Amino acid sequence: xxxxxxxxxxxxxxxxxxxxxxxxxxxxxxxxxxxxxxxxxxxxxxxxxxxxxxxxxxxxxxxxxxxxxxxxxxxxxxxxxxxxxxxxxxxxxxxxxxxxxxxxxxxxxxxxxxxxxxxxxxxxxxxxxxxxxxxxxxxxxxxxxxxxxxxxxxxxxxx
Length: 159
Known about the structure:
It is a single chain. The longest helix is centred in the middle third of the chain and has 17 residues, at 45-61. Strands 2-1-3-4-5 form a 5-stranded parallel sheet, with helices on both faces. The protein has 2 domains: 1-30, no CATH class; 33-158, 3-Layer(aba) Sandwich (Rossmann fold). The protein has helices at residues 3-8, 45-61, 76-88, 101-113, 142-158; strands spanning 36-40, 65-69, 91-95, 117-122, 135-139. It has 159 residues and is α/β, with parallel strands linked by helices. α2 (45-61) packs parallel to α5 (142-158).
C-alpha cells in the first residue's frame, strides 16, 4: 500500500463499511471536524421549531456548525451520509421527544462508536435514562433548551 493510501485508510472502524472508497477499494475516513455537531431530531413541525429556536442558536453562539438528521433513512445513501457525518463530528445531540426511529438508530450508532452524546428530552416525557459519559438535558420549551444547551456546550468544549 502506498503512503498516501495508508493515510487515507481507516483501520477497522465500526462504520468503515459506510465510508467512500479510493480506487484501490480502501475506506477513506471522513475528515474529523472539531467545530461540527451531529444533530438528530424527529421531523415534525414542532421539532423543527425547537431546533431553530433552541438548538441552532445555542450552537451558533459557540461557533459550531451542524449536520441535522431529521428524516427517515429510506436508502443506503442516506445511511452512509448519516454514518459519515456521525463519524466526523466532535459530538452528537439527540432529541428523544417521541422516540423517533431515525433518532434512536443514530443514537445507537453514536453510543456504539463512543461518540460524546447530549440527549434532549421534554420535561413532560418519562425520562429515558442517562448512560455513562453522556449528558441528559430536560427542557420545558425552546428558550429553556437554548439556555441549558449553551451551558452544557460551554463545559464540554472546555474539556
